[in-house]
Amino acid sequence: EEIIRQANEPRADGTVPAASYWEDYREIAANWGTAAVSFDSHGMAVAFSPYELAPYGFGEQTFRLSYDFLKPYLSAHGQKLLGLQSE
Hints:
Radius of gyration: 14 Å
Oligomer: single chain
Strand content: 15-25%
Number of helices: 4
């Protein structure tokens, strides 16, 4: 749901990314676990390769989820692994 929300959020130039995505982008985004997922000091990034959500020219489509957003969905063990919980 968060990826879909971000895809439909207008950018600074007024364009909406999802307007250029494939018709079935919602289903593709729902399977985000098959995309490249990484974690950094700010949270989680989900990156879809070119052609997955939109034509190649739009490039990789990346969505960021902050740790504040993710924390309620993480187990105590997951929070510990990501350094969100003290020992």
